[in-house]
Amino acid sequence: MGVRRRVLCWALTIAFSVVAASLAGCSGNPDAVTPGTVDADRVLYERGLEALKGEAWLRAREYFVQVRDNYPQSTYRADARLGVADTLMGEGSPESYVQALEEYREFLALYPTHSRAGYAQYRLAMVHFAQMRRAERDQTETRETIKELETFIQRYPPDHELIGEVRAKLREARDRLSDSSFAVGRFYYRNKYYPGAIERFKAILDEDPGYTRRDIVYFHLADSLARAGRTAEALPYFERLLQEHPSSQYVEEARERLRNLKGS
Known about the structure:
With 264 residues, the chain is an all-alpha fold.
């Protein structure tokens, strides 16, 4: 009797499991999105945005790729392409940066007049910006950043919603490039090769009038000229430093150098 009861319980358990599995199969995964789902492309895109916001890069990309590849007539398809690029940029690896650049460029080639083309151009520049190196290192990515940001300014209206950010990043990139040139000039200056230092410092002033740290260039250029025996050329740069940058750390030293040069 005990054996029969155990066999019966075992059989009922198996039967119940089969029925439960069957019912689950019929009801389906409530989170699954199939081509038959109402507004499936919108649902996928919104889930991609949610995952992107949470920095779940791979999951977000999977949703965006489904929209891009499976719904060619979707109004979300172009935005999904940008979503794919954004996830790649978000990953922040050398490999993903390369892929992100390709995706942004492809978007711009396919949708040059799209309302979000400016965003794509800005993000393209930001991929390079994220890879800019210190002033003492190679500045290839800095130059690429400047090129792409200048393209934005040339291509999109001055009241574009991103123009403020574009100009701020452009100033930062140009400062980095000028910092790099200054580092070379200062190397010459410290090694008393004043002709090379003068050339570098003058190039910064000519090529980047908006350089944030012009005071440091004025001082080193003026001092290089003075030490090279070109006093008449040095005086105006010391004076510009005092006039344009009264709070500079070089003000007192510049005043002292001016007094000595004018008194000599």
